[in-house]
Amino acid sequence: MSFGANLIPHPSISGVKIFQNKNNFPISWLNTQGYCEYSIFLENVRRVKTEPTKSMIRGSHEHSILEEKFREDAEPATFDEMMETSKTAEILSREFPVISATYGIRGFIDEVWMTPDEFVIIDDKPGTIAYPSSINQVYGYCLAFKDMIKEDRKIVASLRQRGTDRVFWASYFDEKAEKQINDIVNHMHELISGEKEFNSTDNPNKCGKCRFNSSCDKRV
Ligand code: SF4
Q1: Which of 45, 87, 116, 205 is the most interior residue, by most CB within 10 Å?
Q2: How many domains does one find in the chain?
């Protein structure tokens, strides 16, 4: 599935698109922001190029395997058809595209379970630790998804260990979670518009593992 939306490249920030006259950034940045938002600046404003890390390569390989397995017996359906079917039956979708003009965010959800009672939004992660940055990312998917469905079935945010069925963290996407992620999304838009500066981490352990560390002027 694709966004099927008209995305115009931002004039100076590579990952940002203009959608319905508003800056729109990838939801995965909510995870990166929690690690070090300066890496977003290096990659997308200064356009520093790095080799993908081993974990990125492994993640993308495991992703393709799951995607291929899913496609073997998947029946294509439109968004509206899925919403309708899921009112009476449980269905599952992978690589589910979400985009919100209201919040200026977009991305692909690893897996969505749609049931008559609730939607479960799943983001696959390499380990089993529910980092705040991982939670922010899955909340970002929930926020965009909620904006698209415009109905009141409950939404559950979940983190699952990649390549397994093990969901190691789950929580309802309630009012508190929605406010929390909305504040971070607004902060990101202030960085993109230049109202705020991208901060760098002061944690040397993060810099040690960062793929930008050889070209970063803020490394500690
Ligand atoms: S080297 Fe450190 S400060 Fe620089 S982008 Fe990476 S984590 Fe951030």
Answers
A1: 45
A2: 1
8 Å CB contact between 159 and 125: yes
User: What value does the mean pLDDT of the chain take?
Assistant: 91
Does 20 have pLDDT greater than 60? yes
Residue 2 in domain: no
User: 3-state DSSP helix/strand/coil percent for the chain, to nearest 5?
Assistant: 40, 25, 35
pTM comes to 0.91
Summarised one tens digit per residue, pLDDT across range 88-100 is: 999 999 999 999 9
- Of 145, 104, 83, 111, the residue nearest 19 (C-alpha): 104
Instruction: Supply the range of the domain harboring residue 104.
Output: 8-215
